């Protein structure tokens, strides 16, 4: 008999709509036996997939007595096999076997499709964090030494700290990624306060924005500030803390942003509020644009492309190969927050469509 083996968590596409499905129902207790409910659960899943194999053999792990059985999607679960010897040795298989009677649908080497393709991004991710940690330690010392002079000469913008942060960002990403920044000519003068806004796809967005080389006050959730070195550097840079579910913290954050703008410093917002899980541009919140309208400063829209595919949201441990594009658009001004919000979102959306 010809079997294709697959890990428990894997759903593997064979060809077009033919699939091998692996299902884990959880362990049975020592006094619990295989029941009709378990059979129905697997039968329902298999029956909902076109081209499902005629029979499935699987060997659950950590089961008391039932170690393998055969399933027909049309007839239910049958042919229960008992393997007390394997159970006593605690060597129950960690895999399921799927027998496909769709001739020619399998491919050689398809049994372990995760091997090289998934190991490389993880190795790149480890290298990324190793480099960012080592570089951060050395540059944080430099930032700490310079901090008294920064407070004395440039208390609000702290451009020296942002210059150090730019070195940190470029030193981390340059060996592994290519960042292409366009639209430098659209940036306001360095001493002109502005509200910068951008789409948000990945943890890498911060690195891409720091690479621009402008000092603007980021807003970050308070939990990040407790991270050694990185969190301490954020405090020195004057990053604005925010407790997302706390209305008082949100009001205090907006007030601090207004104060910074009045004193000549720029601020940065991700108006979506969180990272996009699917790469699509979410709705923009009004806060950034209300501040810009009240303080009469320009809004600078920025489109970031590529970071979501390289380090997807929720999968910060990997770093896929690729390149990042940052597009700095022309500033927009106005007194109506709603109009500013719609204009900024349309500009960023057009950048994602036409440049992405």
TrEMBL record:
Coiled coil: none annotated. The chain crosses the membrane at residues 128-153, 224-242. SUPFAM superfamilies: Glycerol-3-phosphate (1)-acyltransferase (SSF69593). It catalyses: a 1-acyl-sn-glycero-3-phosphate + an acyl-CoA = a 1,2-diacyl-sn-glycero-3-phosphate + CoA. Its EC number is 2.3.1.51. CDD domains: LPLAT_AGPAT-like. One of its GO terms (molecular function) is 1-acylglycerol-3-phosphate O-acyltransferase activity. It holds the Pfam family Acyltransferase. GO terms for cellular component: membrane. One of its GO terms (biological process) is phosphatidic acid biosynthetic process. This is 1-acyl-sn-glycerol-3-phosphate acyltransferase. It comes from Rhododendron simsii (Sims's rhododendron).
């Amino acid at each position: 008999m010809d079997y294709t083996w697959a890990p428990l968590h894997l759903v593997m596409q064979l060809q077009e709509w033919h699939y091998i499905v692996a299902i884990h129902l959880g362990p049975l207790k020592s006094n619990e036996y295989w029941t009709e409910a378990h059979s129905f659960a697997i039968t329902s899943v298999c029956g909902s997939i076109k081209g499902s194999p005629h029979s499935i053999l699987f060997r659950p792990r950590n089961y008391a007595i039932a170690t393998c059985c055969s399933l027909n999607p049309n007839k239910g679960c049958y042919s229960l096999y008992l393997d007390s010897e394997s159970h006593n040795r605690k060597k129950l298989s960690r895999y399921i076997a799927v027998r496909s009677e769709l001739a020619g649908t399998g491919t050689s080497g398809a049994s372990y499709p995760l091997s090289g393709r998934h190991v490389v991004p993880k190795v790149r991710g480890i290298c990324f964090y190793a480099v960012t940690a080592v570089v951060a330690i050395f540059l944080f010392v430099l930032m700490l030494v310079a901090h008294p002079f920064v407070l004395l000469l440039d208390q609000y913008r702290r451009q020296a700290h942002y210059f150090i942060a730019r070195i940190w960002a470029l030193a981390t990403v340059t060996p592994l990624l290519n960042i292409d920044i366009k639209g430098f000519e659209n940036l306001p003068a360095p001493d002109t306060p502005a509200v910068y806004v951008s789409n948000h796809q990945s943890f890498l967005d911060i690195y891409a924005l720091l690479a621009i080389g402008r000092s603007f006050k980021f807003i970050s959730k308070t939990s990040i500030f407790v991270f050694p070195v990185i969190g301490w550097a954020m405090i020195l840079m004057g990053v604005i803390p925010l407790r997302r579910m706390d209305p008082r913290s949100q009001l205090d954050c907006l007030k601090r942003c207004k104060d910074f703008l009045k004193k000549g410093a720029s601020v940065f917002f991700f108006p979506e509020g969180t990272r996009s899980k699917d790469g699509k541009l979410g709705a923009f919140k009004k806060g950034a644009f209300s501040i810009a309208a009240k303080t009469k400063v320009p809004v600078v829209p920025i489109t970031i492309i590529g970071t979501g595919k390289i380090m997807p949201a929720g999968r910060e441990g990997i770093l896929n190969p690729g390149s990042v594009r940052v597009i700095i658009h022309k500033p927009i001004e106005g007194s109506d927050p709603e109009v500013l919000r719609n204009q900024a979102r349309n500009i960023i959306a057009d950048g994602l469509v036409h440049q992405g």
